[in-house]
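User: I'm new to structure prediction. If I give you an amino acid sequence, what do you actually give back? Let's try with this one:
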Amino acid sequence: MKILVGLSGGVDSSVAALLLKEQGHEVIGATMSIWGKDGVYKNIQEKLNKLPKRPTHGACFGPDEKEDIESAEKIAKQLGIDFYVFNCAEQYEEIVLKNFKEEYLQGRTPNPCIWCNSLIKFDVFPYLAKVNGIEFDKFATGHYARIENINGRYILKRGINTKKDQSYFLYRLKQNQLANIILPLGGYKKDEIRDIASKYGLSTADKPDSQDFYEGDYNELLSVEDKIGNIVNREGKILGQHKGIWNYTIGQRKGLKISAPEPLYVVELKKDTNEVVVDFKDKAMKNKLTAIKLNWIGIETLEKEIKCSAKIRSSSEPEEVYVKKISEDKILVEFTNMQRAISPGQSIVLYDNDIVLGGGIIDEAQ
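Assistant: Good question. You get back a string of structure tokens that encode the predicted 3D arrangement of the chain. For your 366 residues, that looks like this:
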């Protein structure tokens, strides 16, 4: 087949392209530019471009993007494949960054990588390649997850290396997207991928992994003035002040600057009253949540209450839950065990063993 590989400039996508070429496919390399000197956040672009260069580069969005593009181009030359760059900055700003800003200012905690994957990386990016005359049969990336066709339905499964599994970030993919995607690394462990890169002398063999979507202070992207408010306990007693609820996340312990007999945690962000609510750890645990903006993969839809497992953050292990349908686009999820830091705006992803059933955006913790 003719396969377009999204090259990020890192070791994973590099080896994905290598493996596909070794299998005899015609491989084309491409990178999406999302920083863009003319597209992204025009009102703060000049400010962001003048930020001091950080000692490490561990993010996919930032002024160091040029280095990643150069790294991807170098890999393409090593592999002897064609290479293209497509500017997705305008779409990234409108879809991902706009959602990021709106959610944070509402006191919610979004996950930009999830929106980027479903709406930019696996949608806008390959679409731009097509309309620019690049012909290909499948689109591939270096994500650690697996795709299978079972009885005519495309199923997303966890990668065999559970510590590097990235299915959480892909749960919003649609059937038409999954039908055209190849994930060559789903059956590998990370150390195996680095060994392959070293064996073939790829320049990315020792390159560190990206850790977040943006390496700097999120306030640089929000571009808003301080909004002074109170930090309070559940009874409303004022314990301190803050400069904006968007500076806090549910479950946060550090940076509160409040003296207490034991550590305090952020348990609620109130936009209407501009308050950050804190409490002790044992009072910060919850076991129920509602989720909206659902996307189903492993099933067509949820018809009756089911028992499965779920993750409320990418780094956690799935926990046992019971899931009940409230409406066509809302579910109630009850955990068997109490959970810390259930954060509205984040995603909950549901699993049946290693199969991704689907998921949604956490609306409220209970």
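You can read the tokens as a compact description of the fold. Here is one thing that stands out. The radius of gyration is 21 Å.
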